[in-house]
Write a structure and sequence with these properties.
6-stranded mixed β-sheet, 37% strand
């Protein structure tokens, strides 16, 4: 008797599986982590302007042999006083699916605006350091990185 009721239930649900499968297949698959450059910049700066700056020293390799581990070092030549300091450092890869690689929040207790990490690059692209200051201004610098192999996408 249990097998018969199981088969009846299976027969009742089979048409639902056939109906929902084509709809599921036709839906465009998007990742919740997809974020383009403009959206990321707007989210970080909240629409304020961003200026190019020579106060930021961005160190990245010109040619990355492995796109999965690209070293990035950011040094900001700016005071770290209680009233005037580097508030945030953002690492952005301009052509990755999610361009935001790292967001670091700082305080005057950090003593200097510095951050180093390794990021993943899907293709050859610009790496940008976007720095937020305590007065609400944002400054940036960017450099190109050529990925030869091992780009992750």
């Amino acid at each position: 008797m249990k097998r018969r009721s199981f088969l009846k239930g299976l027969a009742a649900t089979a048409p639902l599986a056939v109906v929902t499968t084509p709809m599921t297949l036709s839906a465009k698959a998007t990742s919740p982590n997809t974020l383009d450059l403009k959206s990321a910049m707007d989210a970080i700066t909240k629409g304020t302007g961003v200026k190019d700056s020579t106060k930021i020293k961005l160190t990245v390799p010109e040619i990355a042999e492995n796109g999965a581990v690209v070293p990035v070092k950011i040094e900001v030549d700016h005071p770290m006083d209680a009233a005037n300091y580097v508030k945030s450092i953002h690492v952005i890869a301009t052509k990755n699916t999610n361009v935001r690689c790292a967001d670091v929040m700082l305080t005057p207790l950090n003593d200097k605006g510095y951050f180093a990490t390794r990021i993943k690059l899907g293709t050859s692209q610009d790496v940008m350091a976007l720095v937020g200051l305590s007065n609400g201004e944002f400054i940036k610098v960017q450099k190109p990185v050529k990925v030869t192999i091992g780009g992750c996408g």
